[in-house]
């Protein structure tokens, strides 16, 4: 059998470069590249190998390990999990910096391969610089932090272990049900060791996603439940996009007259102006979707984890039966659902066939149409530019309206945490499934700019607009410099409300007094435009909505990363729409406000679905 003498690091890189995927009839590299910040633990092993194979597998240099992993996650999300990236770091803080991003990928079911350097497998020089020593377990290293946030964790202690470990990693990364982050901890001495590898190990391999068909008995049960329904509602989750089921969803909703609501991950599954699209559902949902959800007798949940923001903390549609169409049995069994384990597109097609000519009652459809039209009028009013001469600081909603109106039709909006995701879920008008890119499974502050960079690398021909609050900007902004260096142009809108406005509003809404969220008036004003310019972007402050509207076309036409900074009102949030969110309040209220909030909290708890 022919063999190749390579180091373990060279074998790793050569294997990754040989993996392929197929999208739209085109065969492409499965891995779009490797993000790397080198240090002791990976520079002499993986670093040398990546240099040698950089034409076959590009390497990108970032400024922060968490940020580069966010970029890799966003890249996979933009490609609907069909392409991905790997990330490598040094052995200590470089590795643990990526753990937060691993949790983001884990919660959102997105593929990324983590290759953190590790301490010596031989233990000859122990303890080495940055080594974490456990007094009770000599096998522990900093990389064990990845275990709870990885779908698969392995530590490569001998070169030949890669013969089993790498195919196992690819199986998880490309499996629609198991998909998520994989960590292969890679000791620095093992990276440099040589082995005679079978040449066949490096032959190109094509990975096509599995497309499971529904079980016949589950399909019959799901169809029977739908036929009995008088007030059905669809919840479209991220699984619709990852399955490529957007057309199947549109056909199903139209044929059977079932209105559609969307989770954060599912928003854009139908264009905003699709007749069946009621908008977001849940805590940050539209008044239309939530009104129907509260009255529905059956919810068809497609490709969603049914987390608390979607379900209104299990109180929004607690009396409705649930049919869960999901590729993952774990999710299909939630909320006491009738499971339909299948690929979303195949499951919808089969369910539509089983239903035949069945349609939801006309009265329900007409109610959905009326509520949808009313909500669209509400969106127009909330997002409209203020009248000339009105001097108050603009709201987040008014900023979003200006950006949405100016946005190119194929533009991509990226956001993650704070109050903006709630405003976007309610108010943004998404044009297609890739146009709305929110990380709201882990709601990770700092994802925004790095995520925008990953989205731009995945879709270089589309305008990528990052919406970020001042709090998130201060947490992680370094990849502005990376975007400039790579020529991956972004338009970043910084909404400056001088602190954590979202949590400030939550604090007050739950009976608390303002504390430790907004910056005091005595704190110096931060010059975000000057900071962004120092990182290489073209940046400016804009004074109000009119100036923002005139600046946006110029920003979109520019070739270098643009940063526009606008002050917004920390007290203002969109009150229309939304649903209850279970945030515990004190059981010993001392003020009138706390007593009022406690009574409302106890009443809302009575509406929650029990168990499941």
Plain-language structure description:
The protein is globular and about 70 Å long. By secondary structure, it is α/β, with parallel strands linked by helices. It contains 24 helices and 23 strands. The mean pLDDT is 96. The strands form five sheets. A six-stranded parallel sheet has the order 5-4-6-7-9-8, sandwiched between helices. A six-stranded parallel sheet has the order 14-13-12-15-16-17, sandwiched between helices. A six-stranded parallel sheet has the order 19-18-20-21-23-22, with helices on both faces. It has three domains: 3-207, Thiamin diphosphate (ThDP)-binding fold, Pyr/PP domains (Rossmann fold, 3-Layer(aba) Sandwich), CATH 3.40.50.970; 216-375, 3-Layer(aba) Sandwich (Rossmann fold); 386-567, 3-Layer(aba) Sandwich (Rossmann fold), CATH 3.40.50. Helix 3 (65-78) packs parallel to helix 5 (99-108), helix 10 (246-256) runs parallel beside helix 14 (344-355) and helix 11 (287-295) runs antiparallel to helix 15 (362-383).
């Amino acid at each position: 059998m022919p063999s190749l003498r390579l180091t373990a690091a060279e074998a790793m890189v050569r294997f990754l470069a040989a993996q392929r995927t197929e999208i739209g009839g085109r065969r492409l590299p499965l891995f779009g590249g490797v993000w790397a910040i080198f240090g002791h633990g990976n520079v002499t092993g993986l670093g040398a190998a990546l240099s040698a194979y950089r034409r076959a597998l590009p390497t990108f240099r970032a400024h922060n390990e968490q940020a580069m992993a966010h970029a890799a996650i966003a890249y996979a999300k933009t490609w609907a999990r069909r392409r991905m990236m790997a990330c490598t770091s040094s052995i200590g803080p470089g590795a643990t910096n990526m753990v937060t991003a691993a949790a983001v990928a884990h919660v959102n079911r997105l593929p990324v391969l983590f290759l953190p350097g590790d301490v010596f497998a031989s233990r000859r020089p122990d303890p080495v610089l940055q080594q974490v020593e456990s007094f009770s377990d000599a096998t522990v290293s900093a990389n064990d932090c990845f275990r709870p946030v990885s779908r698969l964790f392995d530590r490569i202690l001998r070169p030949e272990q890669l013969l089993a470990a790498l195919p196992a990693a690819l199986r998880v990364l490309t499996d629609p049900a198991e998909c998520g982050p994989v960590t292969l901890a890679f000791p620095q001495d093992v990276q440099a060791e040589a082995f005679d590898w079978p040449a066949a190990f490096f032959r190109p391999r094509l990975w096509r996603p599995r497309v499971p068909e529904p079980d016949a008995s589950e399909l019959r049960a799901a169809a029977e439940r739908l036929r009995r329904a008088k007030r059905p509602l669809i919840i479209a989750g991220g699984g619709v996009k990852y399955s490529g089921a957007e057309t199947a969803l549109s056909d199903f909703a139209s044929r059977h007259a079932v209105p559609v609501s969307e989770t954060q991950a599912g928003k854009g599954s139908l264009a905003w102006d699709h007749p069946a699209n009621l908008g977001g559902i849940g805590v940050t949902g539209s008044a239309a979707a939530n009104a129907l959800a509260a009255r529905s007798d059956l919810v068809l949940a497609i490709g969603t984890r049914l987390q608390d923001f979607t379900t209104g903390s299990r109180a929004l549609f607690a009396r409705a039966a649930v049919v869960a169409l999901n590729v993952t049995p774990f999710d299909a069994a939630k909320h006491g659902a009738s499971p339909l384990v299948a690929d979303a597109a195949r499951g919808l097609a089969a369910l539509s066939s089983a239903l035949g000519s069945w349609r939801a009652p006309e009265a329900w459809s007409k109610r959905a149409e009326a509520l949808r039209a009313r909500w669209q009028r509400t969106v127009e009013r909330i997002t409209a530019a203020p009248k000339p001469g009105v001097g108050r600081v603009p709201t987040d909603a008014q900023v979003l309206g200006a950006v949405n109106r100016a946005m190119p039709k194929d533009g991509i909006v990226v956001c993650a945490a704070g109050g903006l995701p709630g405003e976007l879920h309610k108010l943004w008008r998404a044009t297609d499934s890739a146009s709305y890119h929110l990380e709201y499974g882990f709601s990770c502050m700092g994802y925004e700019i790095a995520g925008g960079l990953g989205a731009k690398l995945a879709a270089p021909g589309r305008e990528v607009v990052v919406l970020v609050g001042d709090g998130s900007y201060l947490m992680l902004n370094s990849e502005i410099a990376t975007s400039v260096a790579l020529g991956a142009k972004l338009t970043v809108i910084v909404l400056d409300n001088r602190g954590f406005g979202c949590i400030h509003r939550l604090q007050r809404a739950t009976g608390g007094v303002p504390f430790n969220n907004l910056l005091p008036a005595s704190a110096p004003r931060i010059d975000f435009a000057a900071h962004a310019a120092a990182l290489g972007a073209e940046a400016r402050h804009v004074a109000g909505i009119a100036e923002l509207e005139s600046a946006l076309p110029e920003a979109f036409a520019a070739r270098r990363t643009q940063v526009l900074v606008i002050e917004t009102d920390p007290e203002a949030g969109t009150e229309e729409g939304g649903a209850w969110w279970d945030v515990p309040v004190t059981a010993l209220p001392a003020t009138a406000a706390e007593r009022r909030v406690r009574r409302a909290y106890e009443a809302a708890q009575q509406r929650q679905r029990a168990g499941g």
